[in-house]
Every structure is written in structure tokens, then in C-alpha cells.
What does this fold into?
Amino acid sequence: MKKAIILLVTMMMTVGILAACGTGEKANKKSGDKKELVMATSADYPPFEYVETGKSDEIIGFDVDLAKTIASKLGYKVTVKDMDFGGLVQSLKSGQADFVLAGMTPTEKRKKNVDFSDIYYTAQHLVVSKKDSGIETIEDLKGKTVGVQLGSIQEGKAEEINKQVPIKIENRNRIPDLIQEIKSGRFDAAIIEDTVAKGYFEKEKEFKGFTLSDDPEEAGSAIAFQKNSDLTAKFNKELKKMKENGELQKLVVKWFGGEQ
Ligand code: ARG
It folds into this structure.
């Protein structure tokens, strides 16, 4: 009898889980008379995409504004989906998202699985540490623990450093976790893009950083799409217009305070 009840409960739970999976949003659906596109992002990246603490749980930022501006010109509404950075490419492959805007850099490896728009913003890699860490150059990282975001191109940067001087590489899913690990002393440093790192420098006075490479294209951001999506060309066309008519620059000033 007891066994039968356990079996029954297990079966009911399985059905429940399956039902919950089935309600997952489908990308590119119609809502009302306006078409809707699903944007996937990793909302741990102020000022690109983040949730303001203490305010609503709405995801805001440069990327969200850019997505909404382009999409609305094309007659689409945007729904933003938050996930870990490491799952973004897969969300396009599985059709869970129509595009990804997440400060993502178009790398050769990613291009095997997704298509990219032109670059809309350029950035550099920064080695971030506590002001009293004594870390001023790559050599100073010798034997140190260096954090990077899982699935980011900063992982590759850390491996490059490791070829020059031996370091211990650690990864985390979210940027705030990297910051937290430096604060607590578990990490000596982390590799984070300049625009995002500078935001943390304003809040966290005990942090500093130095630039890892001076090629700003190296960490440039582009919009990612499903392979062969017809959205790529459409978005690119609008992006180009926004670059030419100053609209993109306006967004840069709004979110990055006028640099670049
Ligand atoms: N540009 C880097 C990359 O493509 C890091 C982007 C991280 N973005 C984020 N939303 N956390 O790997």
C-alpha cells in the first residue's frame, strides 16, 4: 500500500514537471497584432543589462534599449529572458530565443553556431583587483587566482595569461560573483570588460584595474541570431542607420556617460 502511494505521488510529480516544461515561451510568437521577438540575455552586466537593486525586477540597460529601438522600427515587440551567459548560444540553437543581446563578442567559435550583426560597441579587457593587491602587470599575476565569467571570451584571455605566467583560473556564472570573490579574498583578480568594471569602480572604492590589451575591437559586442535567420540583415540595416543618424551615440551617452 505504502509503495503504491509513493508510486502514485512520483507519477503525479512527473506529470507536473512535464506540464511546467510545456508552458515555456516559444520564440517569435505573435501577441495581439504586434509580432514579438524573444531576446535572451545575461542580466548581470551593468550598464549593458541589469536589474536595479531595490527597484522593479525589470531588466534595463544599453542592450535592452538598443534591442527595443531596432525591433520597434521593424514592427516587433521585445520580451527579455534572463539566463546565465554560458547558456545564451544554446538558447538560439534550441529556438528559445530569436536573438541575443548581452555584450557578446563575435568569435569564430560562436560563429559556427550563430550569426552576428555588425559590432555596435567596442571594449577592452581589464584585470580587476583590490587596490592593495600589488597587481599592476601580467607578471604580478604569477601564482594568483584569477576569476572569469563562465563561457565568456575572458576565459580564453585567462588561458593566454596562463601561458605566460602560471595562474589558477576559476569561473563563475555571474559577474557580481566575481566581484564578491575578490572582496572575500578567494580570488586575487578577475578579468572583466572595461565598461562594466568601471561601473563597479564607482561603487566599490577598494577596486582598481589595468588594461590587458589595447585592441578595442577584441572585446566588441554584436547581436547574435539563429543561423541563417533573416533578422540578421534586417537588424544590421537598422543598426547602420542608427550609427549614421547619431541615435546609437545617444544611447551610448545615456548609458555609458558619453565615452567613445
Ligand atoms: N564580451 C564578452 C564575451 O562575449 C563578455 C560578455 C558578458 N556579457 C554578459 N552579459 N555577462 O564573452
